[in-house]
Amino acid sequence: MSATRQVNQALGQRQAFLSEQSGLEVFLMHSLIIHMSGSSKRAANVEHLLYSLPNAEVTEAVNGREAVAHNIFPLRKGDLHAPSYPFPLSPGEVGCFLSHRACWQRIVDKGWDYALIVEDDLALQQAEWQATLSLIETHADTDSFIRLPAKRRESPAAIIDQNGAAKLFLPRVIGLQTVAQVVGRNAAENLLAASTTIDRPVDTFLQMHWIHGQRIQTILPNGVSELTDELGGSTIQKRKSGNKLSREFKRALYRAHVSARPQTA
C-alpha cells in the first residue's frame, strides 16, 4: 500500500471518529491536496492541511519530467489557442497542469457535486478562511469554479455576495496561480474536455474563458496565502529563454490580449 493511500485511510478514520463524537453536521465538501510524495520539505504542511481542510485527502502530483520524457499527454508549443502563448512549457508546468486534470477527473469519477483543490504550499488564516467556507457552502454547486487566490489582483465585474470582508465576485480578468479553488463536477467535465491537448500553463489556460466556456468566480479576501519560499521555493522550475527585455515585452503583450477579453456580468 502506498504512503499516500495509508495517510488518506488513517485520516478518513479520524474524520469519521470526530464527526461521530461531535454529533455535528459535517461540511460535505471534499478537499484534494496536490503533493508529490518525495517532497519532504512540504510533508509537514501537507499533514497540517489534512487535519485543517474538510474531508481532505492527498492526490499524488504528476511528475512533469517523466510525463514529457514518455510523451504521456499531447503537448503543443503555445499555438493551440489565440492568443498564442509566447513561452515554452517547462516540465514542472506540464506536471502542474496534469495534476489539476487528475483532480478534475477524480471529482467526476467520485460524483462529488464539487471539491476544494489545493496545492501543498497553502497556508490559511482561520478567521478569513471561515468566512470563505461560509460563502462556498452557500454558493458552490456542480457548475462552480471559484478561485481562492493568495494575491489580491482581481477587480470585480459583479459582486455576487459578501460575508464580512470576504466578497464572492465575478472577476473581469481571471487571475493567475492555482493554490486553491473550488471546482464543481460539471465544471470539471467541461475543463477536461477543453484540455485534451496542453499548450500553456494551467492558470493561463483557466484565464481563457472564451475557450473553455467556464464562468469563473473569485473570493477575496479569503484567508489563503502561500508558503512557497518557506518550503524551499517553487516546484515549477522554468528555464528562462531570451533576454529579460524580450521576455517582459512578450509577457506584457500576452496579458494585454487576455485583458481585452474580460468576463462580463
Structure description:
Helix content is 40%, strand content 18%. By secondary structure, it is an alpha/beta fold. An eight-stranded mixed sheet has the order 2-1-3-8-5-9-7-6, with helices on both faces. Strands 4-10 form a two-stranded antiparallel sheet. Residues 16-25 have low confidence and may be disordered.
Strand content: 15-25%
Largest sheet: 8 strands, mixed
Counting DSSP H or I runs of 4 or more residues, the number of helices is 9
Structural class by SSE content: alpha/beta
Helix proportion of residues, in percent? 40-55%
Order the strands across the largest sheet as they lie in space. Answer: 2-1-3-8-5-9-7-6
Mean pLDDT: 89
Q: What is the distance, rounded to the nearest whole angstrom, between the alpha carbons of the first and last residues?
A: 48 Å
Shape: globular
> Quaternary arrangement of the chains shown?
single chain
* Sequence of secondary-structure elements: HEHEHHEEHEEEEHHHEEH
The gist of it:
The chain is of the alpha/beta class and 265 residues long. 40% of the residues lie in helices and 18% in strands.
